[in-house]
Amino acid sequence: MLDTLYPSVVSGPPRPSRIVTPASLIRHPGHERYVVPGGGALLVQLATGDRLTLINDEGGQPVELVAAARDGRIDAALLGQVANATAEGLKAMLAAGDASLSRLRKGLVQRGIDLGKAGGVRLFGADTPAGNRADLTAQADGWLVIAAPGLPMAPEAQDTATPVTLLVQRASPRLIGLHDLPDPLADPILDLRVKSATAESYFVKAGDYIQILDVDGRQCTDFQCFDARKLDKGIQHALDVTTSRTLMGHAYSMPGLHSKYYDQDWVPLVEVVQDTVGRHDAFAMACASKYYDDIGYPGHVNCSDNFNTALAQHGVDPRPGWMAVNLFFNTNIDAHGVLISDEPWSRPGDYVLFRALTDIVCVNSACPDDTSPANGWYLSDIHVRTYPGAETFSRSIAYRPTPDAEPKMTKETAFHDRISQKTRNVVEYKGYWLPQVYSQNGALEEYWACRQAAVVLDLSPLRKWEVTGPDAEALMQWVLTRDVKKLSQGQVVYSAMCYDHGGMIDDGTLFRLGRDQFRWIGGDDYGGIWIREQAEKLGLKAMVRSSTDQLHNLAVQGPNSREIIKRMIWTAPHQPTIEELGWFRFTVGRLGGPSGAPVVVSRTGYTGELGFEVFCHPKDGSAVYDAVWTHGADLGLRPMGLAALDMVRIEAGLIFAGYDFSDQTDPFEAGIGFTVPLKGKSDDFIGRDALIRRKEHPSRKFVGLEIDAAVDVGHGDCLHVGRAQVGEVTSSMRSPLLGKNIALARVDVAHGEVGTQLEVSKLDGQQKRLPAVIVPLSHYDPKKTRPQS
């Protein structure tokens, strides 16, 4: 009877939610993490008892340590070690004058550390496996220089320099919140802590920089500023996010072309120089008393009232609610038009760096909202630093190759110095600034130059990985769909790389440099990381090390490309000449003659035309770029940006990650089934069983479309047969050559035959439709006769 009166009871206390988060969000007090890039070095302060762990991230990377006492005297005993090296690699890097080491040089001078008297400690070697660790303990207070030395890698070599991670467990953590503040970017003018649930105001001169840091992660801050000269005249024109969104054409401003914030008179107040988060809000107001009153928290502290208090000293009148740039806020507008929010993306130490474009009065809050996920359910501090305008900070947007990785800032390629003389229209792509369109040409002229003469374009962001060791062939045979055993030295093959379920990780090209030497070139960092993970799982004797920073590449494409490359490249007798070089093969040569800069030249491309790619070390980038122009100017050579590249690759039916394929797409559904020789490859490979199943029971097909309307079609536009959606557009363009709108698309196999009539839906999917017909995948030169010519 009692069982019918009372529900069954789950015994015990409630269980906490299980949430998986990156390591950088769950660090313990006093834990610090530094990543020393290959060919780089850094200086870290030590205190007695600090425990150090050095991790050889990718393997094969030597490390040099120089420990110095507080008076600058070098002594390896500070680490409990005996000097076994003279830090020659570190000295060579500093002598080379690399700008990235300028702060280290300054720090050594300030602390009286003379490397000429260095007795260093060398750890690890060329055969050290990936992930190997070394543990040390500081025996006294002092300084430590950690270097991951490496000489410039020749393009045909594979002795790349790779990163090393330093973990520090402080014996006596110096904490204000849960995490230590990162080091300043330079010597700060202002070092201001904005305590939790408060706001602070401050003045910044025109040209100076403002760094706004999230100390403990997932803490939002509202930022507002005024033209100081207007304030002096009694004009209270605050930064206006509506004006800024309209002028910039973005939901919020970001480093690059769309970087400024304005007031209502269109006066630019600040520009965004660096951003390590990439997710903010410029729609909602700063929280105000009415917000909390309406949800049942009357009297709750709020950012708008805190702004009023902080700005009173500057003569700013109070407002019931403030418009602001809501930094680190994670907001979005859903499909129903509802403004939604979730926990911030920001992690401990993340920041936004502004530059003041006029004298400004600023205010920052540390948002007190503990009623929603807006601050990650934990309130903490914000920190503000300002720096003099004489400092130089490059425009950068941070990205993380993996969730646990430290942020990497946007870089310039080896050819940026020359490219920047031809255009300022650059966009961030995979951690590098690349040209979108060239000022003197425009995308259409660049397109026609590729089809009729020749173009040169920067493809340096492609990720390069050196795969070496006695099991290198077995590893690549296992992780790629292609039959790597059939690949000859000097040959290149295009392949897919798949997960166990058959979804694609990446596509790319594999170069065979020797019996046990390969180079994988793909679009994403994770491809190389994943390959290394597979080697570790199987215990294979193979190293997988990144060489992206050691190899930058130009593509020279178009009917005249062979003549240009032939004029500029010398090859030794045992290497193919440019005239002899076959499709998907490479040669090793030099620029201009036997004493010129070393290069690797492959007959590959991404345009559907005859083409070549030239790989060089960044130090030779300007020489290679100049040579292309010297030998191509009379052959109609033009520079090409990403906008024109997208046009030619879509015409040729060449796929692009994130648009035409994802990890939910198999190679057959991406139109590259030819990369999966299920009958011709006798060895097993990752995803083989799933790909057999998916080939035998296909559900979607990759097709070409011709659209009977001069209306722009975009990625994600739905394809319909009547009311039913049967597919979606993946890439599209207006083809100058064909004189029509064309697209690449993925459709249900029931509607995938050539000649099938479909409609592209626009607006709400019903009010506006564009007639379309399925055609063969490659709209331009489907048999690839031009690149093989």
Give the key terms.
seven-stranded mixed sheet, alpha+beta, 789 residues, globular, 15 helices
Description:
The protein is globular. The longest helix has 14 residues, at 525-538. A hairpin with an 8-residue loop joins β33 (598-602) and β34. Strands 9, 11, 13, 14, 18, 20 and 21 form a seven-stranded mixed β-sheet that branches. Strands 31-32-33-34-30-24-35 form a seven-stranded mixed β-sheet, with helices on both faces. α9 (443-452) crosses α14 and α12 crosses α13. It is built from 15 helices and 41 strands. It is an alpha+beta fold and 789 residues long. The mean pLDDT is 94.
Largest sheet: 7 strands, mixed
Tell me the overall shape: globular
> Percent of residues in beta strands?
25-35%
Specify the helix fraction band.
10-25%
| Average residue pLDDT | 94
Low-confidence segments? none
Q: Ends: how far apart?
A: 88 Å
- Give the structural class: alpha+beta
Using only C-alpha atoms, the radius of gyration works out to: 29 Å
By DSSP, the count of extended strands is 41
* Number of alpha- plus pi-helical segments: 15
